[in-house]
Amino acid sequence: MQGYEIIHTSPGADTFVLFEKVVAHIYTDSILALKNREGINASFLNQTFVLLHHQEAIGRCCLYVNPNLSYANRKVACLGNFEMIKDMPAATYFLDYVFKYAKTNGFDYLIGPMNGSTWDTYRLATDYESPCFFLEPYYPNYYSDLFLNAGFEKIARYVSNEDREQELNEARIEKIEGRFAAQGIEFRTINLTHFEQELDKLYDFCMLSFKSNFLFTPINRESFKEKYLKLKPYIKPEYVIISEDKDKNMVGLIFCIENYTDKNEKGMIIKTIAKHPSMRYAGMGNALGTRFKKKALADGYSYFIHAFMIETNASKSLSNYFSGRTIREYYLYGKPL
Fold first, then answer.
1. Each residue of 35-91: pLDDT tens digit?
2. CB environment 238-263: b (16+ within 10 A), e (fewer)
3. C-alpha–C-alpha distance, residues 217 and 295, integer Å
4. Is 286 left (phi over 0), alpha (psi -120 to 50) or beta?
5. Do residues 316 and 159 make contact, with C-beta atoms less than 8 angstroms apart?
6. How many Å apart are CA 63 and CA 50, to the nearest integer?
């Protein structure tokens, strides 16, 4: 295409400023502050691309190679940190170039948008008609069209649900609570005074409880702790509830954080809810969710967001149990090369 050029760059290179400038053409100043925190996943970075039009940066993306990522017996790479002005022909030209580069380098499938792993930013929302909640990534609505027009297909659907039900039927879980009590399971809140020690336990628990999740890959302990340490100033410990067996092994977790972006109502976001994979802990999600919601209702919270649930995940059923109503849907895309 006349007037267009695609360059390769990398963090630290003189031309990397062009990669960083792309977002200024797309977002308002308030959104730019969030975008600048997204960062590059240096662990899996393979190549960084910028699309120029008459020397002006209008598009960008990264190609990530995660050796632990597996999908449909393909040799997979990830396309992440994608940003692009609203120009369908230019986006298709740009993405076609990235597809050819990936194929030439031995890959036969691309997943995106994903910044290297599911521990990083990934997925696109279909629309942003309602305001983003705290920590929810924001992209223009037209990004999905750019992906589909370039030949991507939807490979997974996720939703965020909202629960505004103010009644709580504790009788529904009395039998479950009794069974857990007989097993010696105890519930407690997270200890922020010894937060790093808590994160060590949380890391071990997540590596076990998440390993069957779609596109799961392990993360090293240091990177995991770094991500959660950034959240510490925002955590209210009474809303991070841990269940432990009689030997103090973590067997359940609900990790919630306030929706700080909402200045009109008090809302909480359920960021993570998980249990040990053993069937002896069946019902743990209901028990944790009920304990959390009872406390939050007493403290005057008016709604609860069940965030980023994959359509096939047990947490989706749990959200329905707690009267969740879908407020946003997201898709992850794949592209055969």
1. 767 889 999 999 999 999 999 999 999 999 999 999 999 999 999 999 999 999 999
2. ebbbbbbbeeeebbbbbbbbbbeebe
3. 34
4. alpha
5. yes
6. 12
Q: Specify whether the backbone of 72 is left (phi greater than 0), alpha (psi in -120 to 50) or beta.
A: left
pTM: 0.92
Strand partners for 334: 111, 153
231 φ, ψ (degrees, to nearest 5): -85, -15
Q: What residues pair up with 159 in beta bridges, in sequence order? A: 309, 329
Output the six-digit token pair for 3: 């007037």
Peptide linkage before 113 cis (omega within 30 of 0): yes
> What's the confidence (pLDDT) of residue 128?
77
Fold of the domain built from segment(s) 4-156: Aminopeptidase (3.40.630)
* Fold assignment, 167-301: Aminopeptidase (3.40.630)
Return the residue matching tokens 């069940």. 306
Q: And the tokens for 132?
A: 């983003």
Ordered by start, the domain boundaries in the chain are 4-156, 167-301
Q: Which helix (H) or strand (E) holds 82?
A: strand 76-84
Q: Report the chain (337 residues): mean pLDDT per 10 consecutive residues.
A: 94 96 90 77 97 97 97 97 97 98 98 97 88 92 96 96 87 89 97 97 97 96 96 98 96 98 96 94 93 96 95 61 80 97
Q: Do domains 4-156 and 167-301 have the same CATH topology?
A: yes
**N-term to C-term CA, the chain:** 22
Q: Which of 260, 289, 263 is nearest to 275 (CA)?
A: 289
132: which DSSP letter? Answer: P
